[in-house]
TrEMBL record:
This is Guanidinium exporter. It holds the Pfam family Multi_Drug_Res. Belongs to the drug/metabolite transporter (DMT) superfamily. Small multidrug resistance (SMR) (TC 2.A.7.1) family. Gdx/SugE subfamily. GO terms for molecular function: transmembrane transporter activity. The lineage of its organism: Bacteria, Pseudomonadati, Pseudomonadota, Alphaproteobacteria, Hyphomicrobiales. The keyword Chloroplast does not apply. GO terms for cellular component: plasma membrane. Its main location: membrane. The chain crosses the membrane at residues 33-50, 57-78, 84-103.
Length: 104
């Protein structure tokens, strides 16, 4: 169950990271409320995962999922650049997440 909580926490991370852009400096109420809710959910599920997972593993996986998701959404929503080097780096992060899962 801890890995499921960690996955949910990781998926909430890009939601709040992208949400920050839509808050326009916290000047827009609904995006701000949604962003803060995603932050609370992300930290809450991370806390639940940490009950049984090592903190180093959980934190690395959480931030890795957040990084991959935020980068993918940045490409999709904001036309951020897609380069071979960038995709290779994302692949390395993904392989690190898989490696941590396998060894934990």
């Amino acid at each position: 169950m801890a890995w499921l909580f960690l996955l949910i926490a990781g998926l909430c991370e890009p939601a709040w990271a992208i949400g920050l852009k839509y808050t326009e400096g916290f000047s827009r109420l609904l995006p701000t409320i949604s962003t803060v809710a995603a932050m609370v959910a992300s930290i809450g599920f991370l806390g639940l995962a940490l009950k049984s997972l090592p903190v180093g593993t959980a934190y690395a996986v959480w931030t890795g999922i957040g990084t991959i998701g935020t980068t993918a959404l940045g490409i999709y929503l904001f036309n951020e650049p897609v380069t071979l080097l960038r995709l290779t780096c994302i692949g390395l992060i993904l392989s690190g997440i898989i490696g941590l899962k396998i060894t934990s």
